[in-house]
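Hmm, what's this shape?
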Amino acid sequence: MKDTVDSSSINQTLTALDNYVLLGKSGLRTFGEQWGFGSSNDVSRKIFDRYYESGGNFFDTANVYTNGESERFLGEYISSKRSQCVIATKYTINPVPTPDADGNYPRNNANGGGNHRKNLVESLDASLKRMGTGYTDILYVHLWEYRTPV
């Protein structure tokens, strides 16, 4: 007996969920230019609008992406359509310290990174403030670290 493959669905129209648009050749983007690369606010807005108008509704960011600028841009873009968007952000990594008004960098915060509860709460609070929203739909651990017991 010969195995056969049902190929009748190959030429069928894609469903709405299959029509989502990838951003760029890799499908990955970072909003913001704080790292010396990435997309400006204007370009980011065009990417966001194109993605959203094409049916995209899932946005992934992190507290450290372009020093928080990615979350600020995203929050600005989703402000009028928050309930239609699914937002994921991450924590773990200790953000790069920013200088104070005098240009001095604060002392490194020993509790500012890791997967422990204190960093989770403080990172999430800062992310929500940057995005201007009261909640995130998904909160990921950005990377595994072996100091926090499970």
